[in-house]
Every structure is written in C-alpha cells, then in structure tokens.
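Deviations from the work plan: none for this task. Representative record:
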Amino acid sequence: MSLDELYRQVILDHYRSPRHSGHIEGADATAEGQNPLCGDEVTVELRIEDGAVTDAAVRGRGCSISQASGSMMADKIVGLSLEDVDELVHRVKRLLNIEPGDPGVDPERPGAALGDLEALAGVRRFPVRIKCADLPWATLQEALAGNRTHR
Amino acid sequence: MTDLSHLRKDFPILEREMNGKPLVYLDSAATSQKPVQVLDAVDDYYRRLNANVHRGAYQLGEEATDAYEGARAKVAGFINAASDREVVFTRSTTAAINHIGYGWGLYHLKPGDRIVISHMEHHANVVPWQLITRHTGAELAYLPLTEDYLVDTSRIDEVVDGRTKIVSISGMSNVLGTIGPVAEAVAAARAVGALAIVDGAQLVPHCAVDVQSMGADFVAFSAHKMLGPTGVGALWGRMDRLEEMEPAEGGGEMIRDVDFTESTWAEVPHKFEAGTPPIAQAIGLGAAVDYLSAIGMDAVRQHEIEITRYALEKLSEIPQLTIYGPMDPAQRGAAVSFTLGDIHPHDLATILDQEGVAIRAGHHCAKPLMRVLGLAATARASFYVYNVPEEVDTLVAGLHEARRIFGVA
C-alpha cells in the first residue's frame, strides 16, 4: 500500500529522532529555507574544511517528510567532498522526480546506493509532497552557493 | 437532525472520486462548492447576456446591466441593507478590507491613532492594517483570546481607547470557528467614535446577517465561500460612511468627469468599482444568494450547529486528538481545527486524501493566531450545507488510519 511506502519506518524514525539537529557555532555555510505555503522551516549549517563537509546541523519544524529528509541529508553529507555533495543533491532530486534522469537506485538491493535516503522514493506518488522532501536539499544548495560567494 | 442531504444532487463535484474513494469535501472554509443553479447563472450570462455594463448604447448592454444590478439588489436583500447602493462589488473580502484601508484609513488616520483587531484574525484583516499603519503612523492593537478560544472582551474599553479610529473584527474565525463579539466591538467603537468593521468572510455564508441591526459601518464578504464564484466579493457600508470614503482605485466606470489633472467621481457604489467589474461572477453570487435564501439561513445555521456538534463529539473520542476552538456549537461555526499526537497536519492531510477526504492543513492565513496558540499548523475540517454526518465518520476512520501508520497509541 502506497501510504505505508510513503511513511516507511525509517522516515518516522528520522522524524521523531532527527540526527545532527544541533547548532554549529561559526558555521562556514548556512541557509534558512521556508515553504511559505505550509510554514515548514529548515535551517542548514555546515562546517567545511579542505573542500569537504566535516559537520552539518539541520534544524526545523514541519511535516514528517521535510524533517526526515533533512535528518537523512545531514547524516549522509558529513564526510563528503563538496563535489560529492553536489552529485548527491542531484541524485536525490532525480529520486524525487524533480530533475530528469535515473537516480541509480537498484530495486534488487534496497539501500545499497543511497542508504536511508532511498525511503524518500515513496514521495514520488504524492506530487503535492515532493516540495516537502526537497526543502532541506534546496536549502543545502542555497547554503553551498552562499559559501562559494563568500570565498 | 436537520436533513439537507437532498441538496447534494445540486453539486456536481460531489459525484467525483478521489484516489478511488468518493470525495468527502471538508474544506468549505477555504472555498465552498457550487450548485448547478450558480453554474447555470454564470453560463447563461456568457451565452445570452454577455456585454459590458453601464454603457447603455444598445439593448444587450442594458440586459447585462440589469442582471448585474439585479445581483446587487439580491445581495442587498440577503443582508437587509437599507439600500442596494450600499453594496459595493469587490474582488473579494481581502479587496474590500483593503478598500476601506486605502479609501478611508489613509485619509483619516494620523500618528498615534489606533486600529484594533483581534488575535484570531485572518491575514486579510491583519496585513492591510499593517500597510496602513506604515502610511499613517497609526498603531495596531489586539483584543486577546480567552482560554476557551473566545475573543476576550473583558477589557475591551481599555484596548478600544480614545485614540482608536478603527475597530475591525472577524464575525467568525476561519481557524477556531469562534463567533466574534461583533455587538461588543460595535458598541466599543461607537463609544469612542471609531469606525466598526466586520470581516464577514466566514459569518455571512453561515449565519443570517442583518447589517442594519448589527450596527457596524462596514461588512466585507466573498462570494466563493457562500456557493458563489471566485473573483467577486461585496463590501457593504452605511451610506454616510460610503459617501465620506474615497475610491482606492481609479479607472473606467468610476468617474463623473475626467479633466487633464483632476477628476470627479461617480455616485456610490460606482465610484468604488473601477474598471470592468466581475459581471458574470456577481450574477453568480446573486444566484448563490437565491439558493441560500431558498434553504433559509436559519436552517443553514441549524444544520451546521448539528453537524459541528456531531464532529466535535466524534473527534473528542480519538486518543491524543486536540481541538482548538470552543466546544459549544452555539458559540462557533463549522470550521474545526485540531492536531493528532505528533502527526504533522500535512501528513494527516495526505493520509486523509487517500481516503478521499479533503481537509486543510497549515496556518490557515492566520499566523498571529498560530503564534498565540504556540503552533505552526493545525488540521482543519470545515462543513457546509452539503455535508452529512457520514462524512464525519469517514474523517474519523481516516484519522484512525493515521494513528496506525504513525503508531500513535
């Protein structure tokens, strides 16, 4: 059933116990994202050292999809180079049908490619919720764009 | 129960299915559905009467004008206005309130003056006043709410003080359902010589309104929330207030004479209706008013009291469900806001959508109220003439499904 696909256990787990939900003092890149239609909010803070994300904090309030997406994103990007983060963002956007193309997820081996993030694929059947899942990723892109401008 | 279920056949959209289930439309506080009588009136205008109004050069234009002015007379009768001319067609409630702000507030307010609203207002009765305070230096003051979600009028005479020039209050909250203290607000405004305005967007569709006995200076409402088309609303004003109000918009149709630097205005109400008005929509509103009058507004109100009582009762039985609003149906309308455990309202809306149930989730264009409640969002089910108790049962079943999915005990 598609509702159970949308609200996988892993989504509910991240919603109720968000990872990396703290605050980074003097973050190297930061952005606040909002969906004015529904009021969902996400703040992304990044520590960036030697071209890689060494710490991330994602806080916010909103629905299970936006908050779980942010939590899974924070989990995944810590330790990645900026190039790899950029590639991940586009893969997730392909997974969410926001950008065209194959996200490179193997249905035979669930979780092998993108880990927990693959649970977001359930959103595709609920077009009105895609922007919820995208909010943290769009905010991440904004934070990284700001980071580039500063340097 | 007051049985209005025979009306359902008049609403073609209620035959639709959503996600394989019959549509259960519980979002009438956002916009109501339209009966065939309204659809036919709009269609008939475009098929038989379409011409611009108040040009008078040919027969067809005369007929269009008669239909448009006939709709004005119907609306005036519906709210018992002293004269048809006291009804101004606008784009919406929002446009009507903005018109008072820019046509009256801008000319009469000065620094230190006060505009009083309440904590339960829709943005349509908040943001226009914030803009007007910027232009005039006047300040905005709020009537707070009681713990029972009513507007607290115990200290209304302190809030509506000698500096107050405008008191503008919702007749019925789109979030809490609370019926606003219109009589108290009007009396407090009168005592200090302030303008009394009623945001009737939720009140006029659901309760019999007699603007003369209400005693306010202005009442604003929208057609699309009372079975009529989108794109038209009405501003009723007492004639002396309309006479002293300036037009907020200039253009065609609203002038007496236009010279190179100055113009003079047409008579009320036309001086407030710049440009080609929403003719078909106004005629549709006239048909909606006929439809509601045929049911009888007392029957409409009685039906909503009953279905709201049933909904409050059934929702209260759900574990971890919190209702935000008065529990006595006599104090409220049929918009019921709630939260369920830690399930976000948007998630509730998605789950209910799978059951065919359409509810609103979010801040309902009432962010100051959400701040007062300490919430980011609520879910809201709202009922109208075509809703039946079985639809409450479908809503409740959907909420139990949400509890299962989210593991809310």
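Chain A is about 40% helix and 20% strand.
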